[in-house]
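JOB MANIFEST
job_type = single_chain_structure
chain_count = 1
residues = 159
[input]
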Amino acid sequence: MRFIKRPNDVLFRVLVVLASISLAALSLLVIYSVVMRYVFSDAPDFVEPIALLLVIVIAMFGAALKVREGGHIGLDSLVKKLPPKGQLAAMAFQHLCLIALAVAIFSGCLQMVETTMDDRIPILGLPEALRYCIPVVASVCIAMFSLENLLALFVPKQN
């Protein structure tokens, strides 16, 4: 299990740092925008597109982090009533569904990256594809974390 756990540990820490920095930056950006708008009557144009990118980072990386921790939405009340083998099957099915979702997100967003590479985000001038690169990275993380959790179901725990 170490072959996947160690890289996922590093990936997890990187995502925590990036999501945390994005959340802090978003908070500061919103405060700046509010002060500029209501105190100085001069709303900056660049705040909204940057805030949108930060929200995408927070949401997608946060989702990947919760997959690693096993904190995603599930029907625990139903699964807990199943016998142990049924619980194992349900959890395995859940992780397989998450991997399938990650593949779908990866595929769809990769197509959008290719389609929007030449377009620019207004005001910022950055490639529109940047909005879709974030979910591509997050989907790889979701798949890696789900695979780790899936393998952990079938590997005996070591003390």
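[summary]
Residues 2-154 form one domain.
Helices lie at 2-38, 47-69, 76-80, 84-116, 130-154.
exit_status = 0
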